[in-house]
Description:
The structure holds two protein chains of two kinds.
Chain A: H1 5-8, H2 14-23, E1 25-29, H3 35-45, E2 49-53, H4 78-89, E3 94-98, H5 104-112, E4 116-119, H6 124-137, E5 141-147, E6 150-156, H7 164-167, H8 180-183, H9 188-206, E7 215-220, E8 225-230, H10 235-256, E9 260-261, H11 263-268, E10 273-276, E11 291-293, E12 312-315, H12 321-331, E13 337-340, H13 344-358, E14 365-367, H14 372-381, E15 390-397, E16 402-403, E17 406-415, H15 417-434, E18 439-450, E19 454-462, H16 465-482, E20 485-491, E21 496-498
Parallel strand pairs in A: 1-2, 1-4, 2-3, 4-5, 9-13, 10-11, 10-12, 12-13, 14-18
Antiparallel strand pairs in A: 5-6, 6-7, 7-8, 15-19, 16-17, 17-18, 17-20, 18-19, 20-21
Helix pairs in contact in A: 3-4, 3-9, 5-6, 6-10, 15-16
Chain B: E1 2-7, H1 9-15, E2 19-23, H2 29-39, E3 49-52, E4 55-57, E5 67-71
Parallel strand pairs in B: 1-5
Antiparallel strand pairs in B: 1-2, 3-4, 3-5
Amino acid sequence: MKRYSRHIALNEIGIKGQNKISNAKVLVVGAGGLGCPTLQYLAAAGVGTLGIIDFDVVEESNLQRQVLYGKSSLGINKAIAAKKRLEDLNDSISIHTYPHKLDLSNALELFEAYDIIVDGTDNFESRYLICDASIISNKPVVFASIYKFEGQVSVFNYQSGPTYRCLFPDPPLKGDAPNCSETGVIGVLPGIIGSLQANEVLKIILEIGSVFSGQLYCYNSKTNESQVLFIKKNQKKIDQIKKMLLKEIDHQKCQQDSVVLSIDDALKKDNAIFIDVRDLHERPTINIKNYQQIPLIEIPKSLDKINPKKDIIVICQSGIRSKNAVQILRDNGLKKSYSLSDGAAALLKQLKNKTMKTSKIKNVFKEGAISSDFIGESIAKHQSKTDIGAHNIFLGQVRADEIKGKTIRAIEYTAYNDMANQKFHEIREATFSKFKLSCMHIYHSLGEVKVGEICLFVFVSSPRRKEVFKALEYVVEEIKADVPVFGKELFEDDSHQWKVNS
Amino acid sequence: MKLTIKYFGLLAEITGLEEERLNIENKKIGGLIDAIINKHPGLKGREFQIAQNKKMVNKEDLVNGEEIALLPPFSGG
């Protein structure tokens, strides 16, 4: 945290705010003049997950303003070159690169994975796509544009505020609007405007101050003049876009069915080979038969390593890179290649579920109380599972209830063991299918458990905290209602009564 | 037909048995339960669910398993 001490010193940020920043996920579309300064400050600020999408490569004429790149980046894809520089700036954040064009087939899926979208593009096609996809996926867009000496900044679709379509309802005809390569731009201008974008992003994350929502900030670097224009929301246009775009997306999905394969369908293919096109360091690792790792960038020169007679199923992190790889493979005659619809994590989960289903029903019962050592060891065992981001634990403790003047000293548990274990198993399966969990454990005592001791231990783990809260409550309530376990409440005077769950 | 009848919790206490083998001729679960209550009058009016071969059944279901369990209200956790 030393790195962020100047942030933490601010009352408006502090440790809490810095944690918000490190939990945030920001996608920057376009790593050019605007994207470079934005990315630089967001990475330096410690934004935990940064996505960079850009199809273009670094050219010499970019170096006048695109400050993340140098001579060594020439000819390299901008997303990849930017990542290299940003990793050196801050290696405690994760940076995902998408070295291709944003289009209707990938925008929604990509936006889904992020909290805030930064528009640093330079053409209308992308701007309208970003606008429309953000409406559908309900994500705020920090927008900017530059022209010669002038820049504009706004925050669209923020807390149901106006969108880009409210400012400019429909795209101009192709060729009507120029970009930097045609008109020229003063190099420092995107530096200023991109930095303003980074500033807006951080305020959104931190929930401080005010942002340019419903406002268009205009700056002129030649005259030092600036002004704020107000934007009125055009709900009719927004609704129209929603309707139209969803239809279009459905249409595209139908067309793409032959390229994309669901995990279930992929696993049904006998003898298929799985090609993982993620970079070698990316997690989670996959353990499956007929598996090959070939990073996307190496696919074109690795075609001879792939058996053309087999079905080829391409895997990546989210189903985007795999689609690109399939395109390359099909263009090179490997017609039986398919892109896995979901990413590696989903595949892994499905594989795990499969093994779980064939695995024997576990014995959930433990004789006597569940010790705190046992609970501690369970937690320790999970430290090697680094895809987990949150555990949630329920501990049922025997309470010293007083009933008609007599106090409970212990509960003696019996169960219809086989059926109870079967039920626990069914609850496990149902929980895994309802929630995105990495793993779960249930232990229940049999025999005598004294007051103050633990009789039920439920442990759920997931990459995300929200899942574990919901999942744990579900599991515990199901156990209480459905599992044939019987508690005999023993009083201090050796009399007893049979427990009834409230 | 010879069946294993299992009793749990309070019901085991009332019958004094955890399980017993009974010769049963009833076609439906309801008739089977009546016969069991006839044998153990203490069970009359007690609340319980019935499992056949570890699956919940009701009185209208047919007797077709080897193991019947009488389960008082669950109170785990």
